[in-house]
């Protein structure tokens, strides 16, 4: 996977090479970069997804080889005795789990951009990646709005 | 004009039900929850005892032989937390709402939807406060097991009213590495898990508890309680969950790595830890933020175990506070600190 430039929005660090899902607060990182040539795609939490999840104590993923549609659960997360589904930002077949976060789920709180959850072989990258936010100005604008929304709900600090 | 259900709180009281149904009931209500639907407060009591297990917990945390011997089925739920003993001396309550109405933070979810339960306990005559996020306690004594989860379109927050609680039976179903740790677990549980009967309210009926909860949730949500029967879609979803709970693959649970340490939470502020690494075995208990007991076993300690145990007992249960107490013991002290830190972080 490529390393890339980062930028910050109100103190939250974001990676410029990711595609951000505004519905689930998960990012997608494609091996190929370009939408048309996307190879395996890794998914992980964006910083707001990580912060509002609370201290993650357990993660589980559907088995490798499972096909998940966009918006379907590819796994579960547990924090403070709350269990919630992890919803796939794109459709695809699960190719790998990140064993490091399964063994130490707190990593996704420590550095959500550095720790992917699963790798997917995308099925409809050409159709679905454009539904996510990638262009830095769009990401900035959306993320700033989300920060404001979460602040208004008291979900994150000022 | 708003639809009639927009200001109502559905109340479903399923009464005494089978062990399977006591879990499937609220899983099904959540799964069938539609966007824009009224929140549902549901109640039930299991007719027979069983053991419940949190979604991500390994089955080997339970002593399955003991469960078989005691005739206790084991049911894995789709919310968090560890193994729990459940029986007819408990009233289960669940508040379920469409996912879009749930606060985005789990601590806010508990704040909003467990505070009414605390208020209901106070109506019954117990000074219950919410502490440690999702614990309902009288002083430092837990009086309700709680948890939460999103199940399809619904988010549910669950709790129970403990009329009586059999501490020894609870410890019997846990897989623990030694009789000593089981005894310690029982000691902490007796001190930190209470019940209405233990608090002098043995005469409280399930009807009184249900009434107090309905009133408290209706008031907190600003909604009018309306008794309701299960809908056909809820019945279908409940039947589906009963089927799932019977499936051995569901009981086995999602794959979880074996961990070198395990922390068994007794209450928000009391727990026991067991950890093992490189020939060293550690067992410990803590309450009120301090280490209460510590036992070490490792051939390499050469008799230093007792001195380390004394040095650590009574210290705050944090790595920072334990480090200076363990430094004089060199490599052994460092290994003990590593194991304790591992245990403190375990769930």
Q: Could you explain how this protein is built, in words?
A:
The complex is a heterodimer of chains A (158) and B (347). Chain A has helices at residues 47-53, 99-103, 107-110, 125-128, 136-152, and strands at 6-9, 12-15, 19-21, 26-30, 41-45, 56-61, 67-68, 73-79, 82-87, 92-97, 118-122. In chain A, the strands form three sheets. In chain A, strands 3-4-5-11-10-7 form a six-stranded antiparallel beta sheet. Chain A is built from five helices and eleven strands, in the order βββββαβββββααβαα. In chain A, strand 1 (6-9) and strand 2 (12-15) form a beta hairpin. With 158 residues, chain A is of the alpha+beta class. Chain B has 347 residues and is of the alpha+beta class. In chain B, 37% of the residues lie in helices and 28% in strands. Chain B has helices at 19-31, 64-70, 106-124, 167-172, 179-192, 206-221, 232-246, 248-252, 305-312, 319-326, 330-345, and strands at 8-17, 40-46, 50-53, 74-76, 84-86, 90-98, 128-131, 135-138, 141-144, 147-151, 154-162, 224-227, 261-267, 270-277, 280-287, 290-297. In chain B, strands 10-11-6-2-1-12 form a six-stranded mixed beta sheet, sandwiched between helices. In chain B, strands 13-14-15-16 form a four-stranded antiparallel beta sheet. In chain B, strands 4-3-5 form a three-stranded mixed beta sheet. In chain B, a hairpin with a 2-residue loop joins strand 14 and strand 15 (280-287). The A-B interface holds A 52-54, 57-61, 63, 75-76, 78-85, 99, 102-103, 106, 150, 153-155 and B 54-56, 78-81, 103-110, 133-134, 146-150, 254-257, 259, 345, 347. Strand 9 of chain A pairs parallel with strand 10 of chain B, so a sheet runs across the interface.
